[in-house]
Design a protein that fits this description.
The complex is a heterodimer. By secondary structure, chain A is mostly helical. Chain A is about 55% helix and about 5% strand. In chain A, helix 2 runs parallel beside helix 5. Chain B has a domain of about 140 residues: Four Helix Bundle (Hemerythrin (Met), subunit A) (Up-down Bundle), CATH 1.20.120.450. The longest helix of chain B has 25 residues. The chains are: A mainly alpha, B mainly alpha. Strand 1 of chain A pairs antiparallel with strand 1 of chain B, so a sheet runs across the interface.
Chain lengths: ~190, ~200
């Protein structure tokens, strides 16, 4: 952990001691990852940060609860992870211009029929995070300013990467609530 | 989100729409990813970050407005779900206030704005209680975000902000990522109250 400012320390301490400030997921400590040395480095930090949180959840959640869902019209725990990683693959394949990772058909909703076990899901999420990190590192800052055709439109690669990161963050937040519904504390919250 | 939300979430739709890149929600994944890439004039870092802030702002504000005021103090703890442990988790109102307070903390580090201590971090001022006030609080926090984004340049984005130990770009993107995490939780809170999140209502499913 890097040095924390006095102000930030005060907030962190307050969050620990005040029940009303009970942290459900991540804190607002912006120094929790390495400072960027370049735009690509900053992006890589964001990518790995949320990606590794999803990997940690995939590894941590009991396999017999993988098909749990909180509401009837939602994805199960496993399908949330497969969907988040699936979109990662759609983005990173488009940006890389190659079909990295396993074939899971069209779209971004891999089927449980293909990823039946917890180990299958964990591996898929891990591969998405690792492959994306490799592409970001390989392409560097120059890659962020390029455009990629996805669907019928051209998109700036930086927009595509942030889309995937934000999308993962949203699903991470949903899974935080799934955790608590199962009397479990999300891995990222156990460190606070 | 909903099981049938196929390729791009509302987040994506918003970002792409905002950039003139709107596309259909599904079946847009290319069977064969494109090989060719071109370089075109890049948007500025300020405009990129501003779009990201705008995207999460829309999600958060729409969700905040969708929750009825009499549900603002809802917490999953209220449901007494068997086997669950939601004891002490944030209420919906506090989720929104936490996003706002975090925004103020992070963005003011870039802008240098002087703001009340209880605006920065944690869960925000205790005297902001009504739905209208909370929505305003979070909207204003994103307004500071847009101001912060406009101050980012290629020269300063990787430099440590004057009022922080983190680089400006890092502070800005962290704020966006943090807000999306809590947006995901707000989505669950809405659904627990039988409310379909606004971002999911336009889907044809």
């Amino acid at each position: 952990m890097k040095r924390i400012s006095l102000t930030l320390y005060a907030f962190t301490l307050l969050a620990l001691v005040a029940p009303s400030l009970y942290a459900q997921s991540q804190s607002i400590d912006p120094s929790s990852s390495l400072p960027a040395r370049s735009r690509a480095d900053e992006l890589l930090g964001r990518w790995n940060d949320i990606g590794n949180k999803l990997v940690a959840m995939a590894q941590d959640f009991p396999e017999d609860k993988y098909d749990y869902k909180l509401q009837k019209d939602e994805r199960t725990f496993a399908l949330n992870l497969l969907h988040a990683a699936g979109l990662d693959f759609v983005v990173l394949r488009a940006v890389a211009g190659s079909n990295l990772g396993p074939d899971f058909g069209k779209g971004d909703n891999p089927s449980r029929d293909q990823f039946k076990t917890k180990a299958d899901v964990v591996k898929f999420v891990q591969e998405a995070v690792a492959d994306g990190a490799d592409v970001i590192k390989q392409q560097g800052d120059a890659g962020l300013d390029k455009t990629t055709k996805l669907g019928s439109k051209l998109h700036h690669n930086s927009d595509l990467w942030m889309l995937a990161i934000e999308h993962s963050g949203e699903h991470y937040g949903q899974l935080v609530v799934y955790y608590r519904a199962n009397n479990m504390v999300p891995p990222d919250s156990r460190r606070q | 989100m909903k099981r049938v939300r196929i390729l791009f979430p509302a987040t994506a739709i918003f970002v792409f729409a905002a950039t003139g890149l709107a596309q259909n929600k599904s079946a847009t994944a290319p069977a064969n990813p494109p090989q060719a890439q071109a370089t075109q004039p890049a948007p500025t870092v300020a405009s990129l970050v501003d779009r990201e802030i705008g995207a999460v702002e829309k999600q958060i504000v729409d969700a905040a407005e969708a929750m009825p005021e009499d549900k603002y103090n809802f917490s999953p703890e209220n449901l007494n779900i068997p086997g669950a442990d939601y004891k002490g988790v944030r209420t919906f109102a506090v989720q929104v206030k936490h996003v706002a307070a975090s925004n103020y903390f992070l963005f003011s580090s870039i802008t240098g704005d002087q703001i009340p201590d209880d605006y920065k971090g944690g869960n925000g001022p205790t005297d902001i209680k009504t739905k209208a006030d909370i929505v305003k609080f979070v909207k204003d926090s994103f307004a500071m975000g847009h101001k912060a984004a406009a101050m980012l340049t290629n020269e300063n984005m990787l430099q440590t902000a004057e009022h922080s130990k983190s680089p400006r770009l890092h502070l800005a993107t962290f704020a966006v990522a943090h807000a999306f995490d809590h947006y995901g939780q707000m989505v669950e809170y809405l659904r627990m109250n039988g409310i379909v999140p606004p971002a999911s209502r336009t889907k044809s499913d």
